[in-house]
Design brief:
- This protein is of the alpha+beta class.
- Helix content is about 40%, strand content about 30%.
- It contains ten helices and 16 strands.
- Strands 2-1-4-5-8-9-3-10 form an eight-stranded antiparallel sheet, with helices on both faces.
- The termini are far apart.
Length: about 350
Amino acid sequence: MVVRHRYLHYLDRGTKTLEEKALTDDNPKKYTDSVIEESLSQDNTRNYNPQSMSQVTELVTSIVKNPNSQEIPHIAERLSQRLLDKEANRQTQVDNFSELQKGALLQALLQDDDDKDTCYYILCKIDFSVYVDEVKFEDKRGLPKKHKVYKSCIYTFKSMELDSIVLFDISGKIAKYWSSDFLELEPITDDEGNTKAIIKGVRKVIRQNTKDGYHDDRKALVSALYGYFEREENYTYSSFKAALFDNYIKRDDKLNLPNIIQKVEKVCKRIDRSFTVHKPTLRIFLTEKNVQVNDKVYLTFKGLVDDQPNLIRAIQSDGRKYIQIETTNDTLFDRFRENR
């Protein structure tokens, strides 16, 4: 990856000032190279489109299409000032706006080594870390050495035309002030669509690969799937995969778990890798479902019936099939006992 332009501005919300840092020496270049690499390697991203009349996308596009323009440093400064203004405005609206007073915005125009028709424009928010001075034992602030990328946006261009925009937020939830207020972007798929797609897709993989004698594994994996979405407010691909598989112990040693993991990964690649869990959609999967038993009887299921094998059993007698159901309703039990 060739870095054609890079700019680093320090943002101070306390004084509302902007300071450009020189990046000509080796150490600043090495540091910003590491930030760029970390931005490009993020897994938990979400796809976005520009809002109508997006000024930021227009400015980024002008940089990509005119890479030798003398105006690029001024455009980069204008974008950094815009972020500073949006953060200051956000702070006046939200009392507990927790980001540090000082941070930085790194911007870079990259050319793909292998594909000359592909280039990237990166905007990466870096929040300063707090450390204690070893001499005076006072709090100091500086650029972080670990987890450098706090928020990022990567524009991908193919043959000078915008191809995709992906955003990352270290919190797992893309902040509105970053995506909408600052960048003027909107998600391609909403939270409801993402939640529905990931649950349906992963559940299908689990059920299809645990049909033949792997009931206990199916029960455990489906329970882990629903449990994750019940617990978490924000979905990220890395946390989801870890919750399902990192500490999973197979109930049946013959289960081809690597095959299931591989198929789940394929499902996840088709869906945003970071979004807010849409709880009403989850409840649709967990609430009432009607299943026909015969022409006169329907069963209404609530919750995870697959996870309650002792509640409902299938039996055969005299060549006929029956559903045996445990009940706590004494009146209903006595009524059917009288029919015997």
